[in-house]
């Protein structure tokens, strides 16, 4: 494990608090006639991992780039650490940004790239520590042009976590990474979080968001479709119990709907209670519930529900 | 700014084509002039100096600046730099500092050859002012042109009007003087700068009459910067 640098900007104590690091109020973004983001309001608290998810073209990248300070809001206010993110001198030393696409000079080596971008962050760190943290030590002298896609993502991550910033934006961080590299990346993020860093994540890997996000903003057509913890989001849709019964079995309880052939589906907002009732009914009637499956609503289900909303 | 400049310098020295061009252009220009000096006696030294200076300013500085900025934008390097705490002015200065320094070194080398072969300038300070004003103008025009250029390949097209235009104007003003069509020649990009170089090299013109020629050149700098602030983009078009 590679330790984080001791010295940080801002004098923060690294505990999750209710203080918003990011405060977005009625954000609107338009490109010509196209309204990309509509009246978006959200906050990200210190120490949180906030995932911004959504369908393609939902406005995630536009929102993210505005919060990062790359883009000006058409209307509304965006504050990061209480300041405009467009004030790069004030805000950027405290934030690290992992872009969706690399943007490194192909003729520079990995070490030179980290040294260059690191020096411009105005945070203190060493290139060797960061190389070790992202597993690129052996590639330090390799030109960026010769890196694989996954190695470029790791280089991107390296520049984002240089100097252990208080706020880290991760835009599709694990795209193109193998399993081991993903685990390594999340280990580094976990260490940053243990030290109190705030993380803003966008990803198409919903299981990553489900496992790691404290809160999720689910965007669709420029606005929040839903926002809350994974529990809050999944509670809005029923869980499912699925099983098969032989033709000779009596009709199942709980308004079980026949899905196809011998397969039945129960949709429920009380999974534990109804599963208990179903198992009791099966025991009482000496019926075998074949291919029994029961599970809570997953983020994928919530995501899929966007299209049907 | 200096770390960005250092990064650019590393890239320049890793690019063999750029490296060779850096030495070939001044060497070929110097050799060309030495050849002409023998073949065409009485060639106006000031005019030659103006043309040689614009050869470097247009080919080496202007086109390289446009190509560099277009390439850095296309591969999102500009966006990467803007993800840091560096300011926009510092980023641009860092990216353009190496090519500017190299171009100044090339101009100095070529004009030194001219001075050794045919005799030095009458007013070296005025000549230095003319060179610096020209460099500022070409950098400004480079920034503006980069705003209209989508890629390094596109730069081969977008740089042509200024590249050819300034070279033609430098030759026209240098070798025919400004007795006729004075206003037109002076307001064209590179016209007054060329006249300034001619005056600085050949002498015989009151300093006040020469210094006024800085105004149109600096005017072009202002126009180019104003245009660049409107059209320069930091990210590729989506």
Outline the secondary-structure elements:
The complex is a heterodimer of chains A (309) and B (238).
Chain A: E1 20-31, E2 34-45, E3 49-54, H1 60-68, E4 75-80, H2 88-91, E5 95-98, H3 110-121, H4 127-133, H5 149-161, E6 167-171, H6 179-194, E7 198-202, H7 206-212, E8 215-220, E9 223-228, H8 230-234, E10 239-244, E11 257-260, E12 263-268, H9 271-284, E13 290-295, H10 299-308
Parallel strand pairs in A: 3-7, 3-8, 5-6, 6-7
Antiparallel strand pairs in A: 1-2, 1-4, 8-9, 10-12, 10-13, 11-12
Chain B: H1 2-14, H2 16-39, H3 45-74, H4 77-82, H5 88-118, H6 124-147, H7 152-158, H8 160-176, H9 182-187, H10 191-202, H11 207-211, H12 214-231
Pfam families (chain B): ABC2_membrane (PF01061)
Membrane topology (chain B): Multi-pass membrane protein
GO cellular component, one term (chain B): membrane
Q: What labels describe this entry?
A:
A: alpha/beta, Rossmann fold, six-stranded mixed sheet, 10 helices, 13 strands, B: mainly alpha, antibiotic resistance (chain A), ABC_transporter_ATP-binding (chain A)
Write a compact overview of the structure shown.
The complex is a heterodimer of chains A (about 300) and B (about 240). Helix content of chain A is about 30%, strand content about 25%. By secondary structure, chain A is of the alpha/beta class.
Q: Can you describe this structure?
A:
The complex is a heterodimer of chains A (309) and B (238). Chain A is of the alpha/beta class. Chain A is built from ten helices and 13 strands. Chain A folds into two domains: 20-233, 3-Layer(aba) Sandwich (Rossmann fold); 238-308. In chain A, α3 packs across α4 (127-133). Chain B has one domain. Chain B has helices spanning 2-14, 16-39, 45-74, 77-82, 88-118, 124-147, 152-158, 160-176, 182-187, 191-202, 207-211, 214-231. Chain B is globular, with a radius of gyration of 18 Å. The two termini of chain B are 28 Å apart. The chains are: A alpha/beta (309), B mainly alpha (238). Chains A and B meet through α3 of A and α1 and α4 of B. Chain A: One of its GO terms (biological process) is response to antibiotic.
